[in-house]
Specification:
With 303 residues, the protein is α+β, with helices and mostly antiparallel strands. The protein contains 14 helices and nine strands. Helices cover 52% and strands 16% of the residues. The radius of gyration is 20 Å and the shape is globular.
Length: 303
């Protein structure tokens, strides 16, 4: 369901920068998100999976990643001035070990990891066959975890589209997001074949979901207890997610160069709302940017 491809030549310099930075510890580079849905006016989103944290700039960054994965970094590369008017190609990449990545897909209570990788992604680099096999299993587990956690929140019957749009909406509510409320619908609509195939495979392997052959309607066999528990679980994920999102923002201020500029750009791109930061907020976002973020929140820039 997830593909491996040669990197677009335009982003190859970013790939090489990551490979140079993390050397022998690098196991895989993945790309996910809006870039795969054809968006080119956006910053690329990479996931970088490593064997250990020895290639990070300092030991405390490794400890931060163990405590609250992933660490997020910003990289950019000057494009050829003749071809692209001197623009810079920018990306952010989230980094953690492959071991923690695989554990998250199966065991994490919060949806931060498995909701992202239940969606399509591409493998841009993989070190060896063992890593490729581990990634394949992790992706399958992400989709399975997503559907198992969403299914008890559904009614007795529904389509694959309703299942995925409902699930994506639930997981978006569990983070501080700038995207519109119908984001799940647009994500499903871009590649319905992928999501329908994942749902069909899950139904074949799990007694909690079924359908008649060639019937577009699925039937929910979740227990009454799991349905009652589902509302509580998603409420807990929302509470947990807001706190984790805030903590990750604080952590990113230490690892992400120009973090406030990036955050304001992302908020404006999705919500259309922008507030000009002061020079002091730009220089010291961790200390002085909170009133600005509160104003944006009050204006509905993110939830």
């Amino acid at each position: 369901m997830h593909t491996e491809s040669q990197a677009d030549s335009s982003i190859q310099p970013l790939i090489e920068e990551i490979r140079h930075k993390h050397g022998g510890a690098l196991l895989a580079i993945l790309v996910y998100g809006s870039w795969l849905r054809g968006k080119r006016d956006t910053m690329l989103d990479f996931y970088v999976l490593v064997e250990n944290y020895k290639t990070l700039d300092s030991a405390w960054q490794g400890w931060m990643c163990r405590l609250l994965p992933p660490n997020v970094y910003h990289i950019h590369h000057k494009r050829d001035e003749v071809k692209s008017a001197g623009q810079e190609l920018r990306a952010k990449y989230a980094l953690l070990t492959l071991k923690r990545f695989r554990e998250a897909m199966q065991h994490d209570f919060h949806s931060y990891f498995w909701a992202r990788f239940a969606q399509p992604c591409e493998i841009l680099y993989v070190r060896d066959e063992a890593t490729r096999a581990g990634l394949s299993e992790a992706m399958k587990q992400a989709a399975s975890t997503f559907l198992r956690r969403v299914l008890p929140s559904m009614g007795d019957s529904f389509s694959s589209e309703e299942l995925w749009t409902r699930g994506l909406a639930l997981t978006y509510q569990c983070e501080l997001r700038t995207e519109s409320s119908n984001r799940g619908e647009s994500i499903y609509a871009f590649d319905p074949g992928y999501y329908d195939a994942v749902t069909a495979v899950f139904a074949q392997q799990n007694a909690s979901l079924s359908r008649a052959e060639d019937d577009p309607v699925y039937y929910n066999h979740s227990s009454g207890f799991s349905r009652k528990l589902s509302s509580l679980n998603w409420w807990l994920r929302r509470v947990q997610g807001k706190m984790l999102s805030a903590l990750r923002l604080v952590k990113a201020a230490f690892t992400f160069n120009e973090p406030l500029e990036y955050l304001l750009w992302k908020i404006e791109r999705h919500s259309g709302i922008y507030i000009e930061p002061t020079a002091r907020q730009l220089r010291h976002p961790l200390l002085f940017a909170w009133p600005l973020l509160w104003k944006l929140y009050r204006q509905g820039a993110f939830r």
